[in-house]
Design goal:
Blueprint: E1 4-11, E2 14-21, H1 22-35, H2 39-49, H3 56-79
Antiparallel strand pairs: 1-2
Length: about 80
């Protein structure tokens, strides 16, 4: 079982915190590496696209879920 861990990041000069389980954090780090951008840049991108009434932690988890689904769909198409 993965415990939730609170972390901090600076987004456009503003310090904020989020809470994530380790597998979500690890996947975000991997996605940033795949895109060849910094972790903070990826978080800022996700933050900018989330609805203002959604919290950052939830937006990060949903982003990981959507990326995972997108990669799975792409892999399925390439296998055909």
């Amino acid at each position: 079982m993965s415990l939730v861990r609170k972390r901090s990041v600076s987004i456009r000069g503003h310090r904020t915190s989020y809470s994530l389980e380790q597998p979500f954090f690890d996947e975000l780090v991997a996605i940033a590496a795949e895109r060849q951008i910094s972790f903070a840049a990826l978080i800022a991108e996700i933050d900018a696209s989330r609805p203002r009434d959604a919290n950052l932690s939830s937006a990060l988890r949903l982003f990981v879920l959507e990326e995972t689904k997108r990669k799975s769909a792409a892999a399925s198409k390439s296998e055909k």
